[in-house]
């Protein structure tokens, strides 16, 4: 019995042709998982193979038809996921595209070329309003347009993610599952959220799961960093600004910078007052 590598939930193992979880169960079981449309495709294939033209049921063709249907459903689900992420506070970033990045935002093509690189994490740092979120969403839009099967992309503002993960929030388990398992997670504005032992533990669980499974992660942050994430900056006569490791500790930081591409976005601020 063939085993298909499909999953209409939107889960998957990246965009590089991998089609998702490999189900070892029977064809009937995985077709059941495909929902009504997948089941209908399967039944259609079976019925056709039982007609006079075929003396033997062509099971491989049946499976292929069901597979194509499920893949189309999966692509649609992923597109819907990304549309949801692009609503609300991130609606303006629907237009972000790697082609719009300035040289300051895409030094050496490291942002626009990241998806095709072997790097697992893209860490985008820089001061306010330099286009960090824009750059991250440019990559998100790129990933959500991968053909024939878009990547399953999920974007969260870090503070909002913490709120959504609280046990009192509806679907908090699903939020954790999706943040850990989607093909590409965008974690926006890491460092702006309030850090507690509990939030550190949630971040660790997500980052660790993603590193272990070599899943893609894009992080934007205002925190100062160097290639090892260790540098702190001292504001004049002020307290030391904690950097990644100062704020999240070695356990999380080491995982964040593992196989990471680090980009520091420079250039002028994109937010300006209206000229009078
Ligand atoms: N290359 C670009 N083309 C068009 N608009 C851009 C570009 N880069 C940034 N912007 C716009 O500039 C504004 C600031 O960009 P963005 O929100 O990405 O900055 P940021 O570095 O994430 O800021 P913050 O640190 O406050 O989160 C946004 O309105 C964004 O749409
Ligand atoms: Mg931002």
Automatic annotation (TrEMBL):
GO terms for biological process: DNA replication. GO terms for molecular function: ATP binding. InterPro entries: IstB_ATP-bd, P-loop_NTPase. Coiled coil: none annotated. Residues 121-272 form the IstB-like ATP-binding domain. This is DNA replication protein DnaC. The lineage of its organism: Bacteria, Bacillati, Actinomycetota, Actinomycetes, Streptosporangiales.
């Amino acid at each position: 019995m063939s085993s298909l590598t499909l999953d209409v939930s939107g889960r998957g193992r990246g965009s590089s042709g991998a089609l998702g979880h490999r189900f070892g169960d029977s064809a009937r079981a995985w077709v059941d998982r495909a929902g009504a449309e997948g089941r209908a495709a399967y039944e259609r294939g079976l019925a056709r193979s039982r007609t006079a033209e075929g003396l033997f049921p062509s099971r491989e063709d049946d499976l292929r038809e069901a597979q194509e249907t499920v893949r189309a459903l999966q692509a649609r689900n992923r597109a819907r996921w990304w549309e949801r992420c692009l609503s609300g506070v991130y609606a303006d970033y629907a237009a972000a595209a790697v082609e719009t990045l300035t040289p300051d935002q895409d030094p050496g093509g490291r942002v626009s070329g990241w998806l095709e690189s072997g790097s697992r994490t893209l860490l985008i740092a820089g001061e306010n309003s330099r286009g960090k979120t824009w750059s991250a969403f440019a990559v998100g839009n790129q990933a959500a347009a991968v053909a024939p099967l878009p990547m399953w992309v999920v974007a969260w503002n870090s503070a909002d993610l913490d709120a959504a993960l609280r046990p009192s929030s509806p679907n908090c388990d699903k939020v954790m599952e999706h943040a850990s398992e989607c093909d590409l997670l965008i974690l926006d504005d890491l460092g702006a959220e309030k850090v507690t032992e509990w939030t550190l533990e949630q971040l660790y669980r997500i980052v660790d799961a993603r590193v272990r499974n070599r899943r893609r992660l894009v992080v934007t942050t205002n925190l100062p960093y160097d290639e090892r994430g260790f540098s702190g900056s001292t504001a004049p006569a002020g307290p030391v600004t904690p950097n990644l490791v100062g704020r999240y500790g070695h356990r999380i930081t080491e995982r964040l910078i593992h196989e990471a591409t680090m980009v520091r976005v420079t250039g002028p601020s994109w937010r300006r007052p209206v000229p009078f």
